[in-house]
Design brief:
binds inosinic acid; Adenylosuccinate Synthetase, subunit A, domain 2; Adenylosuccinate Synthetase, Chain A, domain 1; alpha/beta; Adenylosuccinate Synthetase, Chain A, domain 3
């Protein structure tokens, strides 16, 4: 069984908890795109684990984790995280952590270029995580990137760094920044590459063998559907493909081997960074946004930036369901809405006076969009930690059913708090099968 798990909105839907819940039922948990721009927080008892590069499965000792070929890996961040996890009592060995030889590396000049690129855009900036993600993918597409396999051959690594840095330093100089030194970068990167060597793996072969052995594989998308470079709110997107199609390319697993796609949907929307966000709570709803931000702890787990908050957008989420082919949805953070008297759900958009029920491609439209809302009554009672759908307040159940109908996909799991056991799995759902 191979399941892909994907955020349906603009990220931070709570994938970490759901992957963590599923992880001990799977033999392998993998990432297939992005890098340390992601940030999952997983809470186990009184311990909090913040994962950026490593799949959440790493917390489960019996699980093997893979960083796929579609990823961009900053080896400094990789070992920082490995060391942090080790200090929290997680054993990380090359036996249970594999890094694709075809993944690309993020170097210090990629990070510098992320800064200059944002500076150049001024008011039009993307609001990236400044981790060097975009520039590393630019190098990959430009056929000058450094793959893990390249970094293991010192002459190749040295030549690539020298050639790329000669270009990068010209850009860096235009922005009045200190040029970077290729000998320093080479020394740092080659030492890290040597440390990485035991983890390096031909991951497509590893997956083919795993499939032949009937192993269960969970492919964990980072970022989310509306940040996809092809399908998201371009240009305000990340530089990779978090959507289900990207899982195949970014792992080397044939698409028809994938058995199911699980969407993670939060009961409201958030966005970090710039870009269109049709249901954003603006000034007149600032109090509600603040309430959600506080109750939902909506601050970036990597950058600590306060997230922009908004109402649930059924148009955007239905678009995500169609793109990814969700078989089931995990609905997260219902408890965050416990105190609300009224809940709005965007069921359509109005653009230039016309009703539109599809998610438009032109980002300009999204900025001028007028959301069409339906109002639902809140439940104003405590759902934290509820484990039985029958015990949920009637209005909470109505809200869940309304979201499911408007997205057109079953909701198979409802999360009622950050802990593992604060979860409802719905009987006879597709999701229930994945938990067996
Ligand atoms: P980049 O991925 O750092 O290039 O940033 C591009 C856009 O994606 C920015 O708007 C970021 O805020 C957003 N982004 C990147 N990673 C995440 C994530 O894990 N959660 C939410 N937003 C993200």
């Amino acid at each position: 069984m191979i399941i892909v798990i994907i955020g349906a909105q603009w990220g931070d839907e709570g994938k970490g908890k759901v992957v963590d819940l599923l992880a001990d039922r799977f033999d392998i948990v993998s990432r297939y795109q992005g890098g340390h721009n992601a940030g999952h927080s997983v809470y186990v008892g009184d311990k909090a684990f913040v994962l950026r590069l490593l799949p959440s499965g790493i917390i489960h000792e019996g699980t093997t984790c893979v960083l796929g070929n579609g990823m961009v890996i900053d080896p400094r961040a990789f070992f920082e995280e490995v060391d942090q996890m080790t200090s929290q009592g997680i054993s990380i060995t090359p036996d249970r952590l594999k890094v694709s030889s075809r993944a690309h590396l993020i170097t210090p000049y990629h990070q510098a270029l992320d800064h200059t690129s944002e500076e150049r855009l001024g008011n039009e900036k993307i609001g990236t995580t400044l981790r060097g993600i975009g520039p590393a993918y630019e190098d990959k597409a430009g056929r000058r990137g450094i793959r893990v396999a390249d970094a293991l051959v010192p002459e190749v690594l040295k030549a690539r760094i020298e050639r790329n840095l000669a270009e990068a330093n010209k850009v860096i100089a235009v922005f009045g920044r200190e040029p970077l030194r290729s000998d320093e970068i080479f020394e740092q990167m080659s030492a890290l590459a040597e440390r990485l060597r035991p983890f390096v793996c031909e991951t497509s072969k590893f997956y083919a063998d795993a499939k032949a052995d009937n192993k269960k594989i969970l492919l964990e998308g980072a970022q989310a559907t509306l940040l996809d470079v092809d399908h998201g709110t371009y240009p305000f997107v990340t530089s990779s493909n978090p959507t289900a199609g990207g899982a195949s390319v970014g792992s080397g697993i044939p698409p028809h081997h994938i058995s199911g796609v699980l969407g993670i949907v939060r009961t409201y929307a958030t966005r970090v960074g710039e870009g269109p966000f049709p249901t954003e709570m603006l000034e007149e709803e600032e109090d509600i946004a603040n309430l959600i931000r506080e109750r939902g702890n909506e601050f970036g787990s990597v950058t600590k930036r306060p997230r922009r908050c908004g109402w649930f957008d059924a148009v955007a989420t239905r678009y995500a369901a169609d793109l990814n082919g969700f078989d089931s949805i995990a609905l997260t953070k219902i408890d965050v809405l416990d105190t609300m008297a009224e809940l709005k759900v965007c069921v359509g958009y109005k653009i230039d006076g016309e009703r539109v029920d599809t998610f438009p491609a032109v980002s300009q439209d999204l900025r001028q969009i007028e959301p069409i809302y339906e109002s639902l009554e809140g439940w104003q009672s405590d759902t934290v930690g509820c484990t039985d759908i029958e015990k949920m307040p009637t209005n909470a159940r109505k809200y869940i059913d309304f979201l499911s109908e408007s997205i057109g996909v079953e909701i198979g799991l409802v999360s009622t708090g950050p802990e593992r056991d604060q979860t409802i799995i719905l009987k006879d759902s597709v999701m229930e099968g994945w938990f067996q």
